[in-house]
Write a structure and sequence with these properties.
42% of the residues lie in helices and 14% in strands. The protein contains 12 helices and 14 strands. It has helices at residues 6-12, 14-27, 34-47, 58-68, 85-93, 112-122, 140-150, 202-211, 233-263, 291-300, 331-339, 351-368, and strands at residues 51-55, 76-80, 97-101, 127-129, 153-157, 165-166, 169-170, 177-181, 195-199, 216-218, 221-222, 284-287, 324-325, 340-343. The strands form 4 sheets. The chain has an 8-stranded mixed beta sheet, sandwiched between helices. A two-stranded antiparallel sheet has the order 6-7. It has a two-stranded antiparallel ribbon with strand order 10-11. A hairpin with a 2-residue loop joins β6 (165-166) and β7 (169-170). α2 (14-27) packs antiparallel against α9 (233-263), α4 (58-68) crosses α5 (85-93) and α9 (233-263) packs across α12. The structure holds pyridoxal-5'-phosphate. Residues 57-59, 83-84, 86-87, 131, 157, 159-160, 181, 183, 195 line the site of pyridoxal-5'-phosphate.
Length: 369
């Protein structure tokens, strides 16, 4: 059985990608420049944002977005504990104090009631970072209402959700800014590290552009303190090619998901899609008690699975006993991490492969009855 990955995505567009890379090599221009500006324009158009700013990776994108939105050292920033540790690392890289919020059981994204409790206990927050985990958007209408009530900026972590819609509106257009990762396995993947920030306010965009390069407005003179996190023009050229296929790839991911939905046994819990939301299935995540046993069974049958993530961030050695969280605890995050399993997901995953995975899961549930 063939489990497609980033190499297969490259092979599917090899000629165009090779030509794009050769164009940059021949141009003699290897930092920022036309290729990066063109990708920024094209990505902003894809998302429907006011502007886009290419950065070195998705983690840096969050740091740049937080700083451009006015988050300063010592400020508090609320996010979920059930996320890539990158989200929380970025908040601390910006000098801020993370506040960890629980998730909603059905969509596995930020729970607005837990967000309110956490903000009340902490005396508010400068910013809120909802995470569109697995490609399903966080409950943005509710989160925007909380942000308004508490006077917080919203910065979306859209690393796993290029092209997803929340209540009919694209992710990356809800908050003041959003960060998208273009890590090779993401829905829009580069051939190395890359990321892009979208903004809904031209002034925030201007600040983000300053922050990504030492705060330079004029070369060598820093207007504000910044960092070095530029998008590489070779990666920008690759991403321009891949952006042309992103919508079609997301549609293929939805087809794979629909097949899993139809074929998996009732005993495992399928992902839920909220009404009016569009999921882009960065991951297809099922839930079951005895998850480790199912993962072992699938491994024996040659099916690769993953657990994203095995522990919520508040239980990592680096953060536990140190980072503030919902005063009621984070029971849903803990339960979800114990029971989730990511099945193979890729736009090029064959029909037969999906059927085979579902059949192995069904075998496992029958054996356990
Ligand atoms: C991948 C990811 C990031 C970090 O992106 P990098 O490009 O790897 O720095 C941040 N948040 C989430 C939810 C991610 O999945």
């Amino acid at each position: 059985m063939n489990w497609p990955g980033p190499r297969d995505s490259y092979a599917a567009q090899r000629n165009d990608i090779d030509a794009a890379i050769a164009r940059v090599l021949e141009s003699g221009w290897y930092i920022l420049g036309d290729e990066v500006s063109a990708f920024e324009r094209e990505f902003a158009q894809f998302v429907g944002s006011v502007d886009a700013i290419g950065v070195g990776n998705g983690t840096d994108g969050l740091v740049v977005a937080l700083r451009a939105c006015g988050v300063r050292p010592g400020d508090s920033v609320a996010t979920v504990s059930h996320t890539a540790v990158a989200t929380v690392a970025a908040i601390e890289m910006a000098g801020a104090r993370p506040l960890l919020v629980d998730i909603d059981e059905t969509t596995m994204t930020m729970d607005p009631a837990s967000l309110r409790r956490t903000l009340d206990a902490a005396g508010g927050a400068q910013a809120i970072v909802p995470v569109h985990l697995y490609g399903h958007p966080a409950p943005m209408p509710e989160i925007m209402a909380v942000a308004e009530a508490y006077g917080s900026s919203v910065i979306e972590d859209a690393a796993q959700a290029h092209g997803a819609l929340a209540a009919g509106r694209p992710v990356g257009t809800w908050g003041r800014a959003a960060s998208f990762s273009c890590y090779p396995t993401k829905n829009l993947g580069a051939l190395g590290d890359a990321g892009v920030v979208t903004v809904m306010d031209a002034q925030v965009g201007e600040l983000a552009r300053l922050v990504r390069q030492y705060g330079w407005r004029e070369r060598y003179i820093s207007d504000i303190p910044g960092v070095n996190s530029r998008l590489d023009p070779i990666q920008a050229a690759v991403l321009r090619v891949k952006l042309g296929r992103l919508a079609a790839d997301n549609a293929l991911r939805r087809q794979v998901a629909a097949r899993y939905d139809a074929l998996l046994p009732a005993a495992v819990q399928r992902p839920t899609v909220r009404d009016g939301f569009e999921h882009v299935y960065h991951q297809y995540v099922i839930r079951t008690d005895d998850r480790d046993d199912l993962a072992g069974h699938l491994r024996k049958e040659g099916v690769p699975t993953a657990v994203l993530y095995p522990e919520p961030v508040h239980r990592h050695p680096a953060y536990r006993d140190r980072v503030a969280s919902d005063p009621n605890g984070l029971p849903v995050s803990e339960e979800v991490c114990r029971t989730l399993l990511c099945l193979p997901m890729h736009p090029l995953l064959a029909r037969e492969a999906v059927a085979k995975v579902a059949a192995h899961v069904a075998d496992w549930t029958r054996k356990r009855q």
